[in-house]
Amino acid sequence: MMRPSVKPRVAFFDFASCEGCQLQVINLEESVIDLIDIVDVVSFREAMKEHSDDYDIAFVEGSIMRPMDAERLKKIRERAKILVALGACACIGGINALRNRYSVEHVKKVVYGDADIEGNPFFDVFHTKAVGDVVDVDYYVYGCPISRDELAKVITSLALGKKPEIPNYPVCVECKKKENVCIFEKGGFCLGPVTRAGCGAICPTNGSGCEGCRGLVDNPNTDSELDVLKKYGLTVEDALGRFDLFCYKYKGEVSK
Amino acid sequence: MRVIKKEDFKEFVNLLIGDDTKEVVGVKAKGGKFVYDELSSADELRLDFDVTVLSPKKYFMPPVETLLRYDLSSDFKVEPVNEVTPLIIIGIHPYDLIALQQLETVFRDTYPDANHLLKLERSILIGTNMQNVSPHSFAASMGTATTRYGYDLMLTDIGDSYYIEIGSDRGEDLLERYARVSKPDKTHEQRFESVINGIESKFQKALNFPPEELPSILARTYDSKLWAEKAEKCLSCGSCNLVCPTCYCFDVQDVTELNLRRGERIRTWDGCLLEDFAKVATGENFREDRASRYRHRFMRKGKFLYERFGFIACVGCGRCASGCLPDIADPVEIYNTLKEEAL
Prior knowledge:
Chain A is an alpha/beta fold. Chain A is built from eleven helices and five strands.
């Protein structure tokens, strides 16, 4: 009998995000019954009214945009034994990090115009940060949105006391296993060769290039990826632009 | 030897499809490329293919395969799983037939692998000689452009008919039961000879030396600068491994369901070019840098497996070269350069 005698207490939190990754948890459908059989969900704003600050595992969705977010996140970290970043926004800054190419002042001006927000902590934003830029993260569930299978894998691994196996190989691996014709050979562009797999190559399998929503592998060969993008007809600028949508975080390293 | 008229061959294939005892797969077009897939009619079969994206290895060593199922809920229960769909595969080029033979040797070695061997045993392999050749293929250099073994039947397009070589009793039985064939006459024999003799001239790529020299060339070039130079561009994407008909490395994982009761042990394709391939439990990685992983693949194909099994584990299909986005995987280019270095 490998099931834990005391169920771990689990809480879900959200920061700047569409909350779609938490929706994926709810979308586990009948497996939700299995989930609450092995863990006690003590806080989950999107799914229940109750809330408790006493938890073992915190799942955090969203990116960190303001000092007040950072403070709240630090408190969550203090209370949790294990903290799991949930989805692209939490893991790599995600789409929210797109605005990091502009100054904070410029962004505020564009969004709020001349409104009086001076000194109001709700509008006191800094450059978008991933959860791991602010606190230590124990495990990452990547993707936009996360994959339910991978989430289940992480939860079962934690419940069984083992390290979840998250791929550190690129999407090409999953594409080849599915015998997809390479997106580049079909005249498209793809970040698959440097992006962390685990999505089952869902975008290339359905005919569109990988946008890098799971972030890059641990040691991506971005120079070679840029060469490939150029070989297939992109300018340097356009090739770099491929990293904007999800992988802005890595762009500094890519363009070095 | 037999001959079958092309229209009779179509009927033969359709009869095989109509018979439910085995699933019939063959080469079909897909997005400008070719793949092995289930046939619903003989009209889908494209025996004029140059090369398929994946080799028929995928049927005998599936990309993801369940090895056992377990149930932890009461007594610890484990049952082995060996899901076998008996197949008739139509249209395997000689180099892929030889690759399948190599895999069989590997999977019979030490601990015979029932999951691989049973699938192979229950399947019928119908080869076809190459009508078209991939621009990256160099099978003629590797001695794998034609083969005299490894098939149940072997087809050669001789114009209005296929010339059929019979490689096994199973193959002969299949013809007897389903096909309208005749004995070849002199003209058929001459046309067959001429087609076979013309195959080598279709290759655009060639090694500059006999493949038997590879093990000693690689022994002398282990410290070549070439490995690091080429590997600088390597994406570590494993594409060269994954499309290779002779690569057989796999990873094994236990996947437990959310209920923490039932689960499966699966094996899935791995590749020595991937960063974590040689990483072990302590975090130590025996081939941490791209260059050592890149070199390892060529060493293994041309030297290590030769030393263990007596064959060069490259059949010259050229899939690695065509699948490599930064264009660094072409064995012809690498081996010919090393030959020069080793002089």
